[in-house]
Amino acid sequence: MSDPYAYIKEKRMNNYRISMPRMNFIDQKIRNRKYPNCSSLAKEHQVSVKTIQRDIDCMRNMGAAIEFDRQRNGYYYTDTTYYLPALPITEREALLFVINDRILSQYQQAPYYAELKKAIEKILQFLPDELDLEHKGDFISFQSQPQTAVQQQKFDLLQQAICEERQINMKYYAQHRNEVTQRTVDPYLIHCHQGNWYLIAHCHTRNEIRIFALSRMLAIELTDDYFDKPLNFSIEDFLKDSFNIIRGGETYHVVLKFSPYQARWIRERQWHRSQKLTELDDGGLMLEMDVQGLDEVKRWVMQYGGEAEVAEPEVLRKDVLREIGRMGQIYDLEVKREK
Question: Is the pTM of this model over 0.70?
Answer without folding.
Answer: no
